[in-house]
Write a structure and sequence with these properties.
By secondary structure, the protein is mainly alpha-helical. It has a domain at 54-167: Cytochrome Bc1 Complex, Chain D, domain 2 (Orthogonal Bundle), CATH 1.10.760.10. The protein has 7 helices and 2 strands. α5 packs across α6. The longest helix has 18 residues, at 2-19.
C-alpha cells in the first residue's frame, strides 16, 4: 500500500511540475506575472501610443503644479532647484541654449510619459493620470502651446506639434537601427 501512495504522490508531483512555468535561469527568482509586467509597462510612444484614459485642464494643472512642482520648478516654471520648464525658444542654436519643454522637447506625449514616471521627484508615479494630463496641459500652456481654457487627453495631446519636433536628427549608429526592431515591435 505504501508503494502505491508513493507512486501516486510522485505522479502528482511530476504532473504539477510539468504544468509549472519554466523556472528562471540560474534557479533563483520567479517568472513575473502579467499584472506585474503591466505595472512597469507604462511607456508612451512619441505618437501617443500607450496614453491612458483620462483628461486634465490647464486650471487643474495649475493647482497640481502649485502643490507638487513649485518647490523645484518655480511658480511659473522658471526653474529653481529643478530644471527651467518655460522659455528658451530661439536659443538652441546660440552659444547659451536654454532647453525647456517649449524650446527643446520634441513630442508632447513623451512629456506625459516623463511626468508620470519621474515626477514629483520625491514621489514618482504618485500622480493620477488625470493629474498628469493636467500638469502637462499647464506646462504646455506656460510655453504658449495650449490655450488657458484647454482640456488635454490622449487625442488632444497627440495632436500637439512641438516647436522643436522637426529639428532632431536621426541616429546613424548601427546599434540603434536594428532592422528587426523597425516594424512589428
Amino acid at each position: 500500500m505504501r508503494k502505491v501512495w508513493t507512486t501516486a504522490l510522485a505522479t502528482l508531483l511530476l504532473t504539477c511540475l510539468a504544468r509549472a512555468e519554466t523556472p528562471p535561469p540560474y534557479g533563483i527568482g520567479r517568472v513575473a506575472t502579467p499584472a506585474e509586467i503591466a505595472g512597469w509597462n507604462i511607456d508612451i510612444g512619441r505618437d501617443g501610443r500607450g496614453l491612458p484614459p483620462g483628461s486634465g485642464t490647464v486650471s487643474h494643472g495649475r493647482e497640481v503644479f502649485e502643490q507638487q512642482c513649485v518647490a523645484c520648478h518655480g511658480d511659473k516654471g522658471q526653474g529653481g532647484v529643478g530644471d527651467k520648464l518655460v522659455g528658451g525658444q530661439g536659443t538652441l542654436a546660440t552659444a547659451n541654449p536654454v532647453r525647456t519643454v517649449g524650446s527643446y522637447w520634441p513630442y508632447a506625449p513623451t512629456l506625459f510619459d516623463y511626468i508620470r514616471r519621474a515626477m514629483p521627484q520625491n514621489a514618482p508615479q504618485s500622480l493620477s493620470n488625470d493629474d498628469v494630463y493636467a500638469v502637462s496641459a499647464y506646462v504646455l500652456n506656460l510655453n504658449g502651446l495650449l490655450p488657458a481654457d484647454a482640456t488635454l487627453d490622449a487625442r488632444t495631446l497627440s495632436a500637439i506639434k512641438m516647436p522643436n519636433r522637426d529639428h532632431f536628427t536621426g541616429d546613424a549608429r548601427p546599434d540603434v537601427r536594428n532592422p528587426a526592431c523597425l516594424s512589428g515591435c
